[in-house]
Write a structure and sequence with these properties.
Blueprint lengths: L2 E6 L4 E8 L2 E8 L4 H16 L8 E7 L3 H18 L3 E5 H12 L4 E9 L2 E10 L2 E11 L14 E4 L14 E3 L4 H13 L22 H10 L1
Parallel strand pairs: 1-4, 4-5, 6-9, 9-10
Antiparallel strand pairs: 1-2, 2-3, 6-7, 7-8
Helix pairs in contact: 3-4
GO molecular function, one term: tRNA N(6)-L-threonylcarbamoyladenine synthase activity
Protein name: tRNA (Adenosine(37)-N6)-threonylcarbamoyltransferase complex dimerization subunit type 1 TsaB
InterPro entries: ATPase_NBD, Gcp-like_dom, T6A_TsaB
Length: 229
């Protein structure tokens, strides 16, 4: 029996999931302010519903980003603490990869561009292709202007998978699209695959995927910007 406990907090929709063989248990939280307070009770609720202890899990999986700075830091901190206490390893899962897996289950397509709002008029995006039901990364996650997304010319027209607040510009309007957010259900499924392929790591290696190098300006940098206006 394979048991995976997973969390996804990279966007405003936080979720937790427990995968026990082929049975999935899910909890969802809305509102960024509830992520740090709500995830631990949600995880405990999942374990209680399934009648198992944290130590019964094989691994913890988490959405490592890209996404909201606070959200992905929350995920890393929670899985590190739980994994240390239960002597478990962790599997980092790219949030855009989880979106692609969810989209593949919903639509008849095998080529997806997944896009999340990154604020500041930018997006996080990556392209995935399913070959024989296996998800293959075509373009790694990057931060860019949405109009600068470059679909692979070697593949058929992609299906766009759009997170909340993402609107396609005119040059992509002819492509089909589907709304989809990263979710712990797919994080758990990818965590299971990651465990089977040896991608699990020790808790101290649970790190977020940052694509924006500068999160905030220093006091000196803000003063310089103000002086240039």
């Amino acid at each position: 029996m394979t048991t995976i406990l997973a969390i996804e907090t990279s966007t405003e929709l936080a979720s937790a999931a427990l995968l026990v063989d082929d049975q999935i248990y899910v909890r969802e939280l809305s509102g960024v302010q509830t992520h740090s307070q709500g995830i631990l009770p949600a995880l405990q609720s999942l374990l209680s519903e399934a009648g198992i202890a944290l130590s019964d899990c094989d691994v913890l999986a988490y959405g490592c980003g890209p996404g909201a700075f606070t959200g992905i830091r929350t995920a890393c901190g929670i899985v590190q603490g739980l994994a240390y206490g239960a002597e478990l390893n962790v599997v980092p899962v790219i949030s855009l990869h989880a979106m692609a897996l969810a989209a593949f289950a919903e639509v008849k397509a095998d080529n997806f561009i997944c896009v999340l709002d990154a604020r500041m008029s930018e997006v996080y995006w990556a392209q995935y292709r399913f070959v024989g039901g296996v998800c293959v990364e075509v373009s790694a996650p990057v931060l860019a202007k949405i109009e600068d997304i470059t679909p692979s010319a070697d593949l058929d027209s992609p299906y766009f998978v759009l997170g909340n607040g993402v609107v396609l510009p005119s040059q992509f309007i002819q492509f089909p699209s589907i709304p989809m957010m990263p979710h712990a259900k797919q994080v758990a499924e990818l965590g299971k695959l990651g465990l089977a392929s040896g991608q699990d790591v020790s808790p101290e290696l649970a790190q977020p995927l940052y694509l924006r190098n500068k999160i905030a300006l220093t006091t000196a940098e803000r003063a310089l910007v103000q002086g240039q206006k």
